[in-house]
Structure formats: C-alpha cells, structure tokens
Design goal:
With 884 residues, the protein is of the alpha/beta class. The protein contains 27 helices and 31 strands. It is 45% helix and 18% strand. Helix 9 runs antiparallel to helix 10 and helix 25 runs antiparallel to helix 27. It starts with 11 loop residues before the first helix and ends with a helix. The chain binds one RNA strand of 75 nucleotides through helix 10, helix 17, helix 19, helix 22 and helix 25.
Length: 884
RNA sequence: GGGAUCUUAGCUCAGUUGGUUUAGAGCGCUGCCUUGACAGGGCAGAGGUCAUGGGUUCGAAUCCCUUAGAUCCCA
C-alpha cells in the first residue's frame, strides 16, 4: 500500500487508547526510583485553554522522559472545586432558570451544584488526553471529594488545636458580587483614572469650613471624624473643635493623627472607619464610632440615611451633584488611583468590617522561607526567589472563611449557653457534641442544640494540601512515603503566593518535608502583540481546534519551542506550523528509509560506515547536551537541539550520505544501523512529540508485544570522538563551499565536476590517509564530484578557487570566469582576514596581556594568529595568480 | 512611593565562572533549484559598533555606576 506523502495527525488518538489499554500510565509503588508530579488542578468546570496546554505539555514531557529512563513515573491528575468561580457559574445558571439563590436552601443549592459538576465537570480532563497528557487516571482526585475533604477538615482541626487558626473582627476585602470575603492574595490592584473631590465641612459653631479631599465622596455618609496632622500649623487652631458632616449633618470631632499625609490634598482627611483599613486603625486609636453604610451587595444601607438601596457608583454621581447644589463641593481634580478588584469576579472590592476565620501565617512561613532561600526547594528560574522572600517576610494572616456554599463547610459548631456563644471545632458533629457535653457538663445536649458555622473554606485551603491529599497522606502512609516529596511542580508564577508558598508551608507543617524538590515556573501565554490571552479580547485560539488542525504534536512543539522557563510565551501560529512541518519531515524520512530494498549481497560501503559512526558519535553528543538542558529545565532549548540534530544532521547530512542511488537497493548493514539510529532518535523525541514517534516506531519495524516507543529505553551516551566530529565538520565546510561556488556561477548542482586540492601535508593527511577512511568518499558523494585530485599546481585553468578548512581548493569550471568578480571576492575575504589578524596582533603586542593572561589563552591567540596568517598567504597567492 | 527584572539580527530568544577564530539559533527576508522521501521541500546568501554614557580589567554582550525605555511584584 502506498504511504501518503503527508503525515496525517488525525489518528493520534488511536495511540492514546492503545497506551491506556496497556495501562502504561498507571503507577504503583515498587522498587524503582519514583518520579512524581501532581497536576495543578484546573477548575472542575473549566475548559482547556492555551495556558493549560503549555503547563501540561511541560509536565508531560518531564513525566514521559522519566518513564523512558526507567523510573516509576506517576503523574496525578485532578480538578479543583474553585469555590467562588463555580458558585458564581451555578448562581448564573439558576438565575437563567428563574431561581434566585436566596430563595432556596443550602442543601437545594448544593444539589444543583453537584448536578452541574457531574454534567460539565471534568471535561478538561478529557481534553488533556487529546493533548497526550500521560496522567495516571486511576488516581484522579477532586478537592471536594471524600478523601480530600477529610484532609481539609483535619487540617483545620489540627491548626485550630495548635492555636494557629482563630476568628477575628477586622476590615476585610469584600467582593460585593460574590458576596464573600476575599484574602489579600485574591485582590488585584489596577491603576484607574478617577477624580479627587474637595469637600468642605462646616466647623461647628462658626462660619469657618475645613476642606478635605477624597476619591470616594459617597463614604462621607459613614464619616465619624476628620483628621489632620498634629504638627500641621494650618489646623492647630482646630484642637477640640467639631465639624458637621454634610448631608447627614452629623457632628464629628477633628482629631490629630500622624497617619495623615500633610502633602496630600488639603492635608485633612475624612475618617470612615467602616470602609477603609487605615481609617479603621485610626478609629481604634481615637475610639471612633463605626458606621457601616453598605449592604452586602454594595448598595447603600439604612444606616447611610440617604440613597438607600442604590449602588455605590450611582450614589457617587448623585452625591457629587447634591454636594454641588448645597455648596459643599469646592472642586474636582483628575486623579489616578489604584483600585482593588476581585480576582474571580473582577468586582471592585469594598473594605468592610467583618468577623472571619484566619490562619496565623508567621510560624508557618518560617520553614517555608528557609527551604526556598537555601534551595531545598529549588526555583526555576531563580529570580522568583526575591518576590517569594518579600511576601513571606511581610506575611499577613490568611483569611480562610468564605460566605459561600460550594466548598468545605467550616467544622466549627456553636452552642448558645446563657447568652454566650461557645465554639467547638471537630472533625464531625458527633465529636463536637461530645466536646460540648464535657465542656458544659450537660449530658442532655443533642446535635440540634449545636449549629454549624455557615461559611466554607477558601478553595486554596484545600489546594495547599494537594501534594499530600492526593496520596491520602494523612490517613495512609503507603503511597505518600513512596511518592512524596514529589519531583517537580509546574505552574505559573501568578499563583506563587496563592498556592506554591502555601503548599510548601503545609508540607512542613504536616509532613515535616517539602512537597516538591523543584518548581518550574511557566510564563503567561500572550499573543504576538504581548497581550494576555483572554476571552474578552478574543485573541485566544481555540485550543481544541488547534489540536484538530495541527495535531497535538504540532501544538506541543509550537507551545514549547518558544517558551523559556519563567518567560512569557508569545504565541504565534507560525510556531505550530513549524511543529506540523517537523512531523511531516519525520514522516517522509521514514517513508524514504522504509522504501529501500535491501540487498544482502552488497558490501558495507566505506562512506556509510563512516557516516554511521559519525551519527552515533553526534547523537551521543546530543544526548549529553539534552541531559544538561533537562537538568536546568531548559526545555525549549532542548527541543531546538533535537530539532536541529534530527533535521540537519540526521536527515540533511546523514540520509543524503547513505541514500542509495535512485532505484538501487541498500546493503543490509547500513539499513540495520539506520533503523537502530532512527529508533533511538524517536525515543529521544518521544517526550516532546509522543504521537508521531509512536506511530513511526510501529511503521519502521515489526514490533513484539510491549515493544512500544512510550516505554522504550532512553538512550545513554557512551561518549563521543571529537576528532571524528571535527573531521566531518571540515568536510561539511568544503561541501558548502563547493555548492556556493556552483551557486554563484549558476552551475547545475548535480553536474559531476573535479575538485582540485592544493597539495599540502595537512590536506594529504586529512583526505587521503586512511586515518578516517571514507571522508573523501563522502565529499565526492554529497558535493557531486567526479574526483578529488591533489595537485602541485596552484593555478589551474578554468577553475574556481576557494578556501575551506584552511586549505585551498579549485573547482572545475568549463565556462569563462569573470576574473574581476573573483578578484573582488577574494579581496573582500582578504580584508576580513587582515582585520582579524591585526586585532590579534594588537592583543599579542600588548605586554600586559602576554604577562597577565593565562598561558592557555595566550597560546590560543597565537594559534589564531598563525591560522589567520596561513589563510592570508593562500588568499594572496590566489589573488596573484588571478591578476597575471 | 518601595523593590525586582529586562534592553543582543526585521521578530522571538540563547550566550554558563569575564578569554574557542570579529556574537549564535529559530522564524522571516533574498537568490537559485522542481520528474528522485518531503514546496508543509532542497541549496546557498544577506542582516547586529550587544539600549546610552562612563568606569574596573591585559581583556567586557558578560562585573560596577549614570541616563533613557520596557515589564512585573508590593503598597
């Protein structure tokens, strides 16, 4: 049957099913060295996007390479329940069906949420299979499944009992859309243009006014003081005075506090303790009243007294108008200020006073900081270490409660006893009841006397346990003692605080051990204008369509080939095309070799023998380079090294050398060796392009059961002979010059010509001795030469002279030569060489260089000088003979 | 406002502790090649005073400082 001339990537999935059927991705503890990765769990309701593709391609490359190296590779997949995001989606879905969340019970809501999860959840895991991700699917975990939930509750109870979790009343970040508190890490700040409003407050009992500047005029309804700096001479006379808040006509004190910035605005500041963290602190110092003027959706509450039920941004416009009318508004200036927004809902965050659960992070941070600073946990690239240190050294308590339903409900039960609320934290309500009974010495208590905390935990409170919980680490030591710590975490630097740092903390807190040895930070995927890929910009290609169009291998190639660790990936469809073209090249090389007829009677040609030896050595060199690059996680560079080796060395040079004449058979030795080399090359490439390598693996040879590329043996380098590599490089240089000479004269590339070499001891030794047999044959074959002839005559008629590898050659040429042009060419080369030599001479004539530089460096310079002078001699001679 | 990183070919990036020919790769570009594994191909070529100005050194893309620009983190 005819093999098509183009590689068809559409049957990639056939191989995925094949691997699954053979259970190659499943891992159980055994005697081998483990190699473990836990996936950064994507949102359970998410769909595959470009960022996932990059991230998971990287993980798959690492895990597949480890598997080929004979390690027990285990890649644990799973999903994250993504509390806020998923709840928001479910709420929206219900709203579309005409159901309001506030109209249904918690249990009803959760039923809808689980139904939703069952229907749409985990799509992304199926999509990862298309990409080729070789996860151990039997281990698939979910942050809200039974095992993981048990871990979360135990972690909460542990920390509570260790005094590291507590409840506190503070100013928090409120997301008015999701109607929940957020941690500091979930708030993103953006600079936005806005206005600074100057508003005057009448000083009580006088006709005098005090003017303040604010960006948030609507909050004056909650003002309980006005502050100035104690040393500000402008306001010294206001000591003990009171001012009247406009609109509400509340009389509030003028206070003196050093927090006030005298340079900003008018140097006087309105104080709204309920709606600004700094104001709250000031309020505590001065014992101020706290008036919360907002509802939980950031509309104005009864307490505001005005605009009740209207949204804060609408109120801002209204109040500005009203203040203008009443004469309180002095002026408006344009002003850029930074606005905090919810990472998930993008709603503008509202500071709000509220009681929440916190984790005291200081003690947890200490070992986590040390581990990274001392490279116990190593970051790739290293430059993230500074950011990490800065955060951990300035760590603040972690707000872990969320006013949501979708998540792990906080295992705290409350009991009202004589108007006092008692708290019992336990794994189950039964345990809590026992505690309550003991505590109150009341044996008649029942479960219905207790009521559980209404809130759930921050999603990250389950994610930080992930490397432990996926192995059921709190409850069964079998897996965790084998797989933990994992080898590497592959993730984006944007969640270094939200996730990476906290996992390290949890690792030391519970396992007394780091969760992973290395962290590989991928960059963001951006478009070629450096814009972040996003749905709203519409600049993100559909990941699955990309796979359909170019094959997973092509996409993997494209994602990786321009993605240094930590650096952003500027996605360009050209790169994916390049990957697809590479697949096609591999395919056609396979077609070439497969198409050869083998003739046992033909001898092993000397040039083929040399070519095989050369490619073996070169491959060993490449293997060493790859190992080195993998160690540093320079994966895109590793891929480029392989790409160049395969395309240039293997296909362009090696195959051209050994290729039998059209229609002729090949000797069996060459064939066998070529297949062997081809196989090794496929294994080397497999981690990057798993599908096509498996496909070709089965094409080039009959395979026994279990002889599959995915589990083949990764080749090891046995060292290489640099002299041999150097010799071939010289031959390549000569060939290139021959081609260039033909090219410049418009001669046929394949017309057989004689090449003359001026006779020197070195060229004689190089091409004509039997030290490395076959060099001359290779030269003849790929440069299309009738013969290579040594000559004493340095000026043969009708030849094109050129220099290569420090020797002079003359290529047969049967037409008139443009002598002027030749002279110009040689003159140009001569000028370059003279400049080169002059530079070195200058260096060498500098006594301080010769005296101070290491001997080896000076010797090298001398050798460079000698070589340069040699070339000049040859060029000058050529020039002379042309001119006569 | 505080801090970090970066600036090398048209584009995206390598360039290890300062010294391997006067800086490399991929893409793009230019010319030639088409019955032969592959035009999703082959061969060859052109392109850079390494952002700027100083300094250290026998020697700087590499170390230090200045200036300009870009990105990011924190507040």
């Amino acid at each position: 049957m005819q093999i098509p001339t183009r590689y068809d990537a559409s049957n990639e999935q056939k191989w995925y099913e094949y691997w699954m059927k053979k259970n190659y991705f499943h891992s159980e503890p055994d005697d081998r060295e483990p190699y473990t990765i836990v996936i950064p769990p994507p949102n359970v309701t998410g769909v595959l996007h470009m960022g996932h593709m990059l991230n998971n391609t990287v993980q798959d490359i690492l895990i597949r390479k480890a598997r080929l190296e004979g390690k027990n590779a285990c890649w644990v997949p799973g999903t994250d329940h993504a509390s806020i995001a998923t709840e928001a989606k479910v709420v929206r879905m219900l709203r579309e069906e005409g159901i309001k969340k506030s109209d249904i019970s918690r249990d009803e809501f959760l039923k809808y949420a689980w139904d939703w999860k069952e229907e749409y959840g985990g799509i992304i895991l199926k999509q990862l299979r298309k990409l080729g991700a070789s996860c151990d699917w039997e281990r698939t975990a979910f942050t809200l499944d039974e095992v993981r939930s048990k871990h979360v509750l135990k972690a909460f109870v542990d920390l509570y009992n260790r005094g590291k979790i507590y409840k506190g009343l503070r100013i928090i970040n409120w997301d008015p859309e999701a109607k929940t508190v957020l941690s500091n890490e979930e708030v993103l700040y953006e600079d936005e243009p806005g206005y600074l409003y100057y508003i005057r407050y009448q000083i009580e009992g006088t006709e005098e006014y005090l003017t303040i500047a604010t960006t948030r005029p609507e909050t004056i309804l909650g003002d309980t003081a006005v502050a100035v700096h104690p040393k500000d001479e402008r306001y010294g006379h206001l000591k003990g005075k009171k001012v009247i808040v406009p609109m509400v006509n509340r009389v509030v004190p003028v206070i003196f506090d050093r927090y006030v910035d005298r340079e900003f605005g008018t140097g006087s500041l309105k104080i709204t303790p309920a709606h600004d963290p700094n104001d709250y602190e000031i309020g505590l110092r001065h014992n101020l009243e706290v008036i919360d003027i907002f509802n939980e959706d950031a509309t104005l509450s009864e307490a505001a007294g005005f605009y009740v039920g209207k949204d804060r941004f609408e109120v801002r416009k209204l109040i500005v108008e009203d203040l203008k009318t009443s004469g309180h508004l002095i002026k408006i200036e344009e002003y850029n200020h930074s606005v905090g927004k919810s990472e998930r809902t993008h709603a503008v965050v509202e500071p709000r006073l509220s009681e929440q659960w916190y984790v005291d992070m200081e003690a947890l941070a200490e070992p986590a900081l040390k581990a990274v600073m001392e490279d116990e946990v190593e970051f790739f690239p290293k430059n993230q270490k500074n950011t990490y240190r800065h955060w951990l050294e300035n760590i603040r308590p972690w707000t872990i409660s969320r006013q949501l339903w979708w998540g792990h409900r906080i295992p705290a039960w409350y009991l009202e006893v004589d108007g006092e609320t008692k708290t019992y934290v336990a794994l189950t309500v039964e345990e809590a009841l026992e505690m309550a009974k003991k505590d109150t010495a009341n044996d008649n208590l029942t479960i219905s006397d207790l009521h559980q905390d209404e809130d759930v935990l921050d999603t990250w409170f389950s994610s930080w346990l992930w490397p432990i919980s996926v192995f059921n680490g709190f409850f069964d030591k079998k897996d965790i003692s084998y797989y933990y710590p994992t080898n590497v975490l592959v993730t984006g630097w944007d969640i270094i605080f939200l996730w990476v740092a906290r996992m390290i903390m949890a690792g030391y807190e519970w396992e007394n051990e780091k969760p992973f040895k290395h962290v590989y930070f991928t960059g963001m995927v951006r478009d070629n204008l450096r814009r972040k890929m996003s749905k709203s910009l519409g600049n993100s290609p559909d990941a699955l369509k990309l796979i359909d169009d170019y094959g997973a291998d092509g996409v993997r190639f494209g994602m990786l080939s321009s993605s240094p660790a930590g650096g952003d990936l500027l996605f360009d469809i050209k790169l994916v095309e390049q990957g697809r073209n590479f697949s096609n090249k591999l395919w056609n090389a396979m077609r070439l070799v497969k198409g050869w007829e083998i003739d046992e009677k033909i001898d092993y040609p000397v040039e083929n023998n040399l070519a095989v030896k050369w490619l073996e050595n070169r491959m060993n060199q490449v293997i060493e380079e790859l190992d080195n690059l993998f160690e540093k996680y320079k994966l895109s560079e590793a891929l480029m090294v392989l790409y160049n080796f395969i395309w240039n060395d293997f296909f362009s040079w090696y195959l051209e050398i050994i290729k039998p004449a059209y229609g002729s058979p090949v000797d069996s030795e060459t064939y066998t060796k070529t297949i062997e080399l081809f196989e090794k090359m496929l294994t080397l490439l497999h981690p990057f392009m798993p599908f096509i390598t498996e496909e070709i693996w089965h094409y080039i040879k009959e395979r026994k059961e279990g002889d599959d590329c995915v589990v083949s043996k990764y080749p090891e380098s046995k060292g290489y002979d640099s002299n041999l590599l150097e010799a071939i490089n010289k031959v390549k240089a000569i060939v290139t010059k021959v081609r260039e000479s033909r090219n410049s004269k418009g001669m046929k590339p394949k017309e057989l010509l004689v090449l003359y070499a001026e006779k020197t001891a070195s060229i004689e030794k190089f091409l004509f001795s039997e030290k490395i047999p076959g060099l001359k044959h290779i030269l003849k074959k790929i440069a299309f030469l009738k013969d290579v002839v040594l000559t004493d005559n340095s000026d043969i008629e009708n030849t094109i002279p050129f220099m290569a590898a420090n020797e002079k050659f003359m290529l047969e040429f049967n037409l008139e030569i443009d002598i002027e042009e030749e002279i110009k060419k040689i003159q140009k080369e001569l000028d370059y060489q003279k400049g080169f030599v002059a530079g070195i001479e200058k260096k060498l004539s500098n006594e301080r260089f010769v005296n101070n530089a290491p001997e080896a460096i000076v010797d090298k310079e001398r050798k460079k000088l000698a070589d340069g002078n040699e070339r000049i001699k040859i060029l000058e001679k050529s020039l002379l003979s042309l001119k006569k």
